[in-house]
Specification:
Blueprint (H helix, E strand, L loop, with lengths): L2 H25 L9 H27 L10 H24 L6 H9 L5 H12 L8 H46 L16 H14 L13 H18 L8 H14 L1 H7 L7 H11 L2 H18 L5 H28 L7 H9 L8 H9 L3 H30 L1
Helix pairs in contact: 1-5, 1-12, 1-16, 2-6, 2-9, 2-11, 2-12, 3-4, 3-6, 3-13, 4-6, 4-13, 5-6, 5-12, 6-7, 6-9, 6-15, 9-10, 12-16, 13-14, 13-16, 14-16, 15-16
GO cellular component, one term: endoplasmic reticulum membrane
Protein name: Protein PIN-LIKES 3-like
Membrane topology: Multi-pass membrane protein
């Protein structure tokens, strides 16, 4: 297929995303105010607790079976690699640009976590429906593509609400403890109440621990004479990480929906009861699918509304913004080509070109919008996050289209 034809196929879904995003931005304007902060908060809750779990559960239940689930094992590994490579490049970026320490978690997160949810759910079906699509029959392509995108969103949510959530939390906590130490008897930040402030010595120890948490690779000194002292230090660091990580976020609604959807899909009894027009409990699956259909437009409208902040704020360095764009749209996609080609060479991903296309696309996506929600939660880097996201999604219209075209070209 000609490169120009593939470019048109790739451009259509990106344009659809941009149009809905622009509508969300328009609805958030002060004169309209249909998607103000309160409306976004409630809509975000609906997406997080209702729409997304319904979409993930129904999609996985309908498409994942006991026979094909084994072939999808590489996707969690591939997404993990995107996080690892992005984190390493982000850590290098904060060192080169000398980013303020309270923004380390934000910058590393924007480099590591891509939008593995609604963008894939828009792009994959749209590509499948185009008449010049290189992935064969549109119905089969859309069905399988929806399953791949839903699984990607579910796995991405698990990684985001474990790793990204806690790295931003660590940076925010470190920033707040540093503020308390500098200001002394001045007003305590909102995240710390006066009754929770430990003694000075204890506070200093906590600050030391938080400073070590902010560094991706903790390097231990090798000059200890007493081996028992080394073991005590290791146990101490493990205890600190255990205290800082919020394990409740492992069981986010989308994670639970993923488990339920896979169980229904792989269980022949549950599948016969719920999946298919002749199933006795088909109405449950149909209702979940109907709710899930609201996920894509709702999430995309929220993206547009959140980007409005980026037009009003400019509190982040230019080189940091440029560095994040280079990592997300140059370094990571090139790394993805190497990873997927190696996986295909060793027979880890099979011969399904659509599956390989989704794996490649996971490296070329803009930063996850969930990062903005997490920064709002801990009140650290909110304005900076808005600026980063604004440029990230503005450039996505060009970068994502070009990479999508190139990926289809090398797979067709």
């Amino acid at each position: 297929m000609a490169f120009v034809e593939l470019f048109v196929v790739a451009l259509v879904p990106v344009l659809k995303t941009l149009i809905i995003t622009a509508v969300g931005l328009f609805l958030a304007l002060g004169r309209i105010n249909l998607l103000g902060s309160t409306a976004r908060h409630h809509l975000n809750n609906l997406v997080f607790y209702i729409f997304t779990p319904a979409l993930v559960c129904s999609s996985l239940a309908e498409t994942v079976t006991s026979s094909n689930i084994v072939s999808l094992w590489f996707m969690p590994v591939n997404i993990l690699l995107t996080f690892i490579i992005g984190s390493a490049l982000g850590w290098i970026l904060v060192r080169i640009t000398k980013t303020p320490i309270e923004l380390h978690g934000l910058v590393i997160s924007c480099c590591a976590a891509g939008n593995l949810g609604n963008l894939l759910l828009i792009i994959i079906p749209a590509v499948c429906e185009e008449k010049n699509s290189p992935f064969g029959d549109s119905i089969t392509c859309s069905t399988n593509g929806k399953a791949y995108a839903s699984l990607s969103m579910a796995i991405g949510a698990v990684y985001i609400w474990t790793y990204i959530y806690n790295i931003i939390r660590a940076s925010g906590t470190q920033h707040n403890t540093s503020t308390v130490n500098i200001e002394g008897s001045k007003e305590v930040p909102e995240l710390l109440s006066e009754s929770c402030i430990p003694p000075k010595d204890s506070l200093q120890n906590d600050m030391d621990h938080e400073a070590q948490l902010a560094v991706p690779l903790i390097e231990y000194q090798t000059t200890y004479d007493d081996q028992g002292h080394v073991m005590r230090k290791i146990k101490q660091h493990i205890k600190i990480w255990t205290q800082r990580i919020n394990f409740k976020m492992l069981f986010a609604p989308s994670t639970i929906a993923t488990i339920v959807g896979i169980l229904i899909g792989v269980s022949s009894l549950l599948r016969k009861l719920m999946i298919g027009n002749e199933a006795p409990l088909h109405v449950i699956d149909s209702s979940a699918s109907m709710l899930g259909e609201a996920t894509i437009p709702a999430m995309t409208l929220i993206i547009g509304a959140n980007l409005l902040k980026g037009l009003k704020k400019s509190g982040v360095g230019m080189w940091v913004v440029i560095g994040i764009q280079v990592i997300r749209y140059v370094a990571l996609p090139l790394s993805g080509i190497c990873v997927v080609k190696a996986a295909r060479h060793f027979g880890l991903v099979g011969s399904d070109s659509l599956y390989q296309f989704v794996l490649l696309l996971q490296y070329a996506l803009p930063s996850a919008m969930t990062i903005g929600t997490i920064t709002q939660l801990f009140e650290v880097g909110e304005c900076e996050c808005s600026v980063i996201m604004l440029w990230n999604y503005a450039l996505a219209s060009v970068a994502l289209t070009l990479w999508t075209t190139y990926y289809m070209w090398i797979l067709s």
